[in-house]
Amino acid sequence: MHKTNTYRSRAAWLAMGVILLLLCLAGSVLLGATNYSWATGWASIAHYNADSNDQIIIRTTRLPRAFIAVTIGASLAIAGALMQTLTRNPLAAPSVLGVNAGAGFFVVTAAVLLSVTSMQALMWISFMGAAVAAITVYVLGSAGRGGLTPLKIILAGAAMTALFSSVTQGILALDKQGLTSVLFWLTGTIAGRSPEMLMIVFPYMAGCWLAAWLLSNQLNVLRMGDETAKGLGQRTVWLKAGIGIIVVMLAGGSVAVAGPIGFIGIVVPHVARYFAGLDHRWLIPYCAVSGAILLLLADIGARFIMIPEEMPVGVMTAAIGAPFFMYIARKGIMKA
Hints:
The protein is mainly alpha-helical. The protein has helices at about 1-30, 40-45, 55-85, 100-115, 120-140, 150-175, 175-185, 195-215, 215-220, 225-230, 235-260, 265-275, 280-305, 315-330.
């Protein structure tokens, strides 16, 4: 009976989350420097009129932007949950462990120094940068006595983030034209992103979402520790490698499209655990829905802070996530 009640409670909360997500999606489409009515929004979808400027804006700008926010928010949240389970560290996330910074560094280097403009090429370069950063942080965090520990991996991540960020800024300081073209992207933004950019990375991201959920049972076992997992016959090396690939794909794809948006990977998994518990079969869907909601709300808020200008959404997520980060850091308790 208790399990049935727990299942129903989690399902009910998830259903409410999906409803809230749909409302935020509608808000992202209708709200901004110019607000549109529900009727206009629906007409642009069901009865599109190419002669209507309002419908053109909704169809070609607002809708793609909303779906990009959903995809990026869900991906970063799931990546954060996987990293926290993998490292058993409540502060682990792509933005904290240098994964976003590594991907950003590779993209900026390719765009500014090598004049790479192809979105397809930048996507793979972003994946490569995320992978290099993740492997480097893992190796540094595992070095020395005691192997991998939460403190060591955070220190390694902070060092790599500082290194990649500093070199990125140095490259841009030497190329003022490059600075102008990528500065807004570096702060994290989904404004001005085209549907084509999303469609390039979406198949990989959707595949990673499914893979993460299919690994839920193994993640539940891994959460109990390596020795326990090995004792139950789990091949932890292969599992960790698979998780690492998923994180790299999710973080790298997100950076390629929207730049290094931070703090979603830290905040959302903790919020999701409050409602979903520690079972990854529920935690992964909760993270996807909650991450999408948070980025949609941050993007809507970014439109109204400096009207008629827009604030980069990365600034909004940092404003939301920084206090939460300090709270988790001070609490210092691993609940993943």
